[in-house]
Amino acid sequence: MSLLNFIFYFLEAVAALSAVSMIFTRNVFYGALLLITCLIALAGLYILAFAEFIAVTQILIYAGGILVVIIFGIMLTSKISGKPLVVEHANLFSGILAGFSFFGLLIYFLSAQKFNVFSTAKPSPETRLRSFGTGLMSDFILPFEIAGVMLLIALIGAAVISSSTKSKKV
Predict the structure, then answer these.
(1) What is the pLDDT of residue 87?
(2) If DSSP codes are grouped into helix, strand and coil, which group holds residue 86?
């Protein structure tokens, strides 16, 4: 087994184990830490797939930005109530049934697809990045702007939740 294969299987195992552990944890803070672990392992897999830009974006936006806001929101919310946030698994059977149903659909649709194998000659990183940037700012500008607005809304929501002032009910 080569070193790249070992790194691939290691990162894959870390991502899968942290994702499965997220399902079974009851503490929301530990779930957020497991999500960070999963996202960083996925960024490592992107690096192995020569998708460096997506890997850096994954780390900066998801692990570095959104999850830090989630963790601060969890920490500040638990300080308000004085007890840690705990998730109760009330609908375990229906959740497992829905999960296996979606997994079956995913396997069915992926097995019906024909994937093209590209040649080993890859374009230069500058060409790939330029085509990605051009596509992002022309064809996909609406989803890009919607994602930016949603991130702003999440940041404002986290600030409102973590504010210490209570509104007076009339």
Answers:
(1) 65
(2) strand
